[in-house]
């Protein structure tokens, strides 16, 4: 178990670790860091494997009794990364609507926690659960592409990038999109496939009128509508 005894001047730097169950959260964070650095540090730190095992054992004892959705998601990711978790029942029971891990009045922490949950499910190969979570996360971004706080933004990017890497169905992506804007005789056409799927496209109209978007083919895409007044 790891404890934080020194004060942090800016609480936003801590992300969702603030609040209940801080020792579990901090231990999960450090276990993730130890696992990610293992290939580099293993030959220099003799006690690394022992520390990983002790942290894993501690989290396993606490996992099913956790109360916060954020801590449950974070701990699930740490245990899944350590290859000690294959059952998603506790994780999904802590969710809201099976697509987000939500606490009252903590929007950016909810985004961060949901990102950990997505990473945990990807580690466990529970791909059937991931679609609604990805859709919820992509709907939360602020204007400019951020997610409110640095920690939340970084974790969303990591989780969505891992989703793109691991989901084999993405290679079958082949969509034709047509956008018919007011007073344009010819619709704007986009073709989205596996090679260009991450390239953002934009279209603009100055008229506050209805427009039509149609899609054909195979796969999924996300559209964001931004209105200026």
Automatic annotation (TrEMBL):
<feature type="domain" description="Alpha-macroglobulin-like TED">
    <location>
        <begin position="2"/>
        <end position="93"/>
    </location>
</feature>
<dbReference type="InterPro" id="IPR011626">
    <property type="entry name" value="Alpha-macroglobulin_TED"/>
</dbReference>
<protein>
    <recommendedName>
        <fullName>Alpha-macroglobulin-like TED domain-containing protein</fullName>
    </recommendedName>
</protein>
<dbReference type="GO" id="GO:0005615">
    <property type="term" value="C:extracellular space"/>
</dbReference>
<feature type="domain" description="Complement component 3 CUB">
    <location>
        <begin position="172"/>
        <end position="229"/>
    </location>
</feature>
<dbReference type="InterPro" id="IPR050473">
    <property type="entry name" value="A2M/Complement_sys"/>
</dbReference>
<dbReference type="InterPro" id="IPR008930">
    <property type="entry name" value="Terpenoid_cyclase/PrenylTrfase"/>
</dbReference>
<dbReference type="InterPro" id="IPR048848">
    <property type="entry name" value="C3_CUB2"/>
</dbReference>
<feature type="domain" description="Alpha-macroglobulin-like TED">
    <location>
        <begin position="101"/>
        <end position="163"/>
    </location>
</feature>
<dbReference type="Pfam" id="PF07678">
    <property type="entry name" value="TED_complement"/>
</dbReference>
<dbReference type="Pfam" id="PF21308">
    <property type="entry name" value="C3_CUB2"/>
</dbReference>
């Amino acid at each position: 178990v790891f404890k934080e005894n020194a004060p942090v001047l800016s609480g936003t730097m801590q992300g969702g670790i603030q609040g209940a169950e801080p020792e579990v959260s901090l231990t999960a964070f450090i276990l993730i860091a130890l696992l990610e650095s293992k290939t580099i540090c293993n030959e220099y730190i003799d006690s690394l494997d022992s520390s990983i095992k002790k942290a894993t054992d501690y989290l396993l004892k606490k996992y099913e009794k956790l109360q916060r959705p954020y801590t449950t998601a974070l701990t699930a990711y740490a245990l899944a990364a350590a290859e000690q978790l294959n059952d998603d029942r506790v994780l999904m029971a802590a969710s809201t609507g099976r697509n987000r891990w939500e606490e009252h009045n903590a929007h950016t922490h909810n985004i961060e926690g949901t990102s950990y949950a997505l990473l945990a499910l990807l580690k466990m190969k529970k791909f059937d659960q991931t679609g609604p979570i990805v859709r919820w996360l992509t709907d939360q971004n602020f204007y400019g592409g951020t997610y409110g706080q640095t920690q939340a933004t970084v974790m969303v990017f990591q989780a969505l990038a891992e989703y793109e890497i691991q989901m084999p169905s993405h290679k079958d992506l082949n969509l034709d999109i047509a956008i018919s804007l007011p007073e344009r005789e010819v619709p704007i056409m986009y073709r989205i496939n596996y090679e260009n799927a991450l390239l953002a496209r934009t279209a603009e109209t100055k008229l506050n009128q209805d427009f039509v978007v149609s899609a054909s083919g195979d796969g999924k895409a996300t559209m964001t509508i931004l209105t200026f007044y």
